[in-house]
Amino acid sequence: MKKDIKIWLEDTKRTMEKGIEIFAAVAPKDLRAKYLQYFQDNKNAKAHSAPYGMLINKLTFIQRNNLYSPVEVKATVNEQKAASNKAAVNETRPLTDLDIVPEEVKAKADRIREIVPIMAALTAKNAEPNLPIAEAKEISEEIVNLETERRELWKAIDDAQTVQAPSKPENEIEVVLPQTIAEKKKAIKNLKEKINRNKKAAEKATDEEKRQNSLDLVEKYTKELDLVEAAEVAE
Fold first, then answer.
1. What is the count of structural domains for the chain?
2. Same structural domain for residues 59 and 80?
3. Alpha-carbon distance 235 to 219, whole Å?
4. Cβ neighbours of residue 21 under 8 Å, at least 6 residues apart?
5. Which residues on adjacent β-strands are paired with residue 180?
């Protein structure tokens, strides 16, 4: 009905009868009690008449000051609730996908872990039947905002996991071999994490080029791992 007010006010062929219908649906209780009967008694009023001008004035006043009836506000909140509930269940990727991520996006992974339980709690709160309209509206908006943030974080993580494959010849592998047992253990752990990350990225990739890049990196890091595991180091 909010859109109906705008459409009606902008329509050069607007009718008194349609304006009364909109007023009855959106006007707050005090305005309906004061003016609705008057408008209905003059439903056949012509353009430029006093009742016609007053109806334009009151609908403009309602629109400008956002003075909609509780029924109209509740309908809007219900729409927001539906959108927020959809957001809360949309793209529910397992948090285990965040167990191994590049160092530069670990903070983003931690933020996703924070967001998920917050969204779950807000969704449960939003489902309460007696929740005040104003509070429901705020919660719905917060859920949608959190879902938007979560999507952006996941995208950044996915992008970081799918990097361009090296352009060096296949037989040319540059590896800094470890010199101590501690360095060797660290290098092996590092390479295994990279292999696992890119295997997952290849499985999830919807773009063939990105998938191939990830597979190329799996092959590269596997060769590096073989060299590091075979390296002799000092005790």
1. 3
2. no
3. 30
4. none
5. 234
Tokens found for residue 52? 């016609």
Q: Is residue 129 part of a domain?
A: yes
Instruction: Report d(CA 205, CA 164) in Å as an integer.
Output: 13
Q: Are 109 and 157 in contact (CB under 8 A)?
A: yes
Give the pLDDT confidence of 206-235 residue by residue, as tens digits: 878 888 888 988 888 898 888 888 877 665
pLDDT for residue 17: 92
Does residue 109 fall inside a structural domain? Answer: yes
Residue in 157, 159, 163 with CA at minimum distance from that of residue 95: 157
3-state secondary structure of 180: strand
Domain that holds residue 88: 70-161
Which tokens belong to 106?
A: 């670990």
| Least-confidence region, from 20-34, 88-102, 195-209, 221-235 | 88-102
Can you tell me which residue has the tokens 């408008």? 39
- For residues 58 and 93, the answer to whether their CB atoms sit within 8 Å is no
Domain membership of residue 87 (yes or no) is yes
Are 20 and 37 in contact, with CB atoms under 8 Å apart? no
